[in-house]
Amino acid sequence: MAFKSSTLFKKSSGNGLFKRYGWTPRHCRLTSTSLEYYTHQDGKLKGAIDLTECTVQSFEALPTDCLKYNRSASTAWRLAIQTPTHRYFVAASSERDMHEWLRALQAVVKLNEMRWMQPYHGQLRVEDSPQVLLR
């Protein structure tokens, strides 16, 4: 089940032959445990960011005055995602979209925290989903 999906620009890891960083549009899909990213909406899964060890503080909206070092199509509406092993960067198409992603990511983490604190019996209820928590 996807709690949110849309296109975000993902900053590359810089692990390639020339260690270059760049921003690539990726179709992103938020699940209860990860942020998956694909080549395009119906495309191949390129990777996933594990959110199971993240907290609400793991997500940060970056200031819009962060410099852009290249001519990529990415925007100034950027988020940082800190996991125990890596810091990821994504950029949304607008300020509103950035805040929607930030709230959705935080809601998924809060939901997971609530699930781990209480005995789990059966499926997740609709009223516990991030869409309801975002209201």
Automatic annotation (TrEMBL):
Coiled coil: none annotated. It comes from the Eukaryota. InterPro entries: Boi1/Boi2-like (IPR045188), PH-like_dom_sf (IPR011993), PH_domain (IPR001849). One of its GO terms (biological process) is retrograde transport, endosome to Golgi. Gene3D superfamilies: Pleckstrin-homology domain (PH domain)/Phosphotyrosine-binding domain (PTB). Keywords: Phosphoprotein. Residues 1-110 form the PH domain. One of its GO terms (cellular component) is recycling endosome. It holds the Pfam family PH. The keyword Phosphoprotein applies. The keyword Transcription does not apply. This is PH domain-containing protein. It comes from Aphanomyces invadans.
